[in-house]
Amino acid sequence: MTRPRVAVVGPVPPIRSGVARHTAATAQALARVAQVRLWSFSRQYPGWLYPGEAERSADLHPPERLTIDWSLDGVSPLSWRRTASRIASWQPDLAVFPAWTFFLAPALGTVARSLRRRGVPVCAVVHNAVDHEAAWWKNRLSRWQLVQADRYVAHNDTLADDLRNVTPGAAVEVFPHPVFDDFPQPRGTLARRAALELLFYGLVRPYKGLDIAIEALALSGRRDVRLTIAGEFWQGVDRTQAQIARLGLSDMVEILPGHVSDADTAELFARADAVVLPYRTVSGSGIVPMACHYGRAVIASDLPGLASVIEDGRTGWLFPAEDAGSLGEIIAGLDRTQAGAAGRHAAAFGRTLTWEAFARRILP
């Protein structure tokens, strides 16, 4: 039987982002049951607009054994039409697009609309239905991309509901974020420094609530805790350093600003007893499956996008969003034995979240 042709359109490594890693893993899982080609970005954002250090990293590599066309430019409408024509000439049976940011919605939406007009069904893998730091015009751009799809896959029911509000009547499949299984195993190079090691990992943006975690650490009253903040700051690192100093936590908090390599990621998760996600708002997080991969407990806001994949008291702990006092109480009462047990349960849960099962939800 002839395997279907699937065109996957979106960022992949060496582009640096969770969505890029997700798109690559999705394409590789689909390639086990279909003919797959990738169309990715030569550039996503203009340099003056991108808030990070660089879009690409030399330590990240494109997915192996897949044909990749790097013809898409997020700021060049000519490339959008050219990419759509190239995809159409391959005659795919399905096109798959991620949806996560308003800025790239015009590019991806234009390609998707062009393919649909040529009779190619479109499936959107929706990471965000609306922008985390919302403005009406951002959400309007995001919606424009979303309505170009025939059906959708999301990682939790809350995101699916958001999607149905944006696109009434949308056909949405739900499957939790699969576990990234391509991160290396740790070598154990980082020594423990305290009775309890906590990790805040990933891009630092206001909605992720780093300031809440720092305040909670102070409110816990403990001095035998160390918090590591590892990731690129998309907000002022000076403000974070000032808060740490004001609360007298300089000897308890380590900041590792900038891109974190996969090898360093493995070591940071290995040292941590628990990962802290004090988000103010969220539709889902790739950090939770990373914690599952490394067998680490998660302490997170009780937002639906997190609560749906964290079993309170078993795979981690939940606290009311933006309530630093409640988070502080969890930190005050937590020990390494409890965190280790929760981490083992998280690892077991993670083994049920495979990319192959996720790919089956994408295929018609």
Shape: globular
Number of helices: 13
- Give the number of domains: 2
CATH class (first level) name of the largest domain:
Alpha Beta
CATH topology of the largest domain: Rossmann fold
Strand order of the largest sheet: 3-2-1-4-5-6-7
Oligomer: single chain
CA radius of gyration: 21 Å
* Secondary structure: number of strands: 13
CATH architecture of the largest domain: 3-Layer(aba) Sandwich
Arithmetic mean pLDDT: 94
- Poorly predicted runs of 5 or more residues: none
Task: Give the amount of beta strand, in percent.
Answer: 15-25%
Q: For the report, how would you describe the main beta sheet?
A: 7 strands, parallel
Structural class: alpha/beta
Report helical residue fraction: 25-40%
Give the distance, in angstroms, between the N- and C-terminal Cα atoms: 16 Å
Order of helices and strands: EHEEHEHEHEHEEHEHEHEHEHEHHH
Tags for this entry?
364 residues, Rossmann fold, seven-stranded parallel sheet, six-stranded parallel sheet, 19% strand, globular
Give your account of this protein's structure:
The model has no long low-confidence stretch (mean pLDDT 94). The protein is of the alpha/beta class and 364 residues long. Helix 1 links the parallel strand 1 and strand 2. The strands form two sheets. The chain has a seven-stranded parallel beta sheet, sandwiched between helices. A six-stranded parallel beta sheet has the order 10-9-8-11-12-13, with helices on both faces. The chain folds into two domains: 170 residues, Rossmann fold; 155 residues, 3-Layer(aba) Sandwich (Rossmann fold). Helix 6 packs across helix 11. It is built from 13 helices and 13 strands. The relative contact order is 0.12.
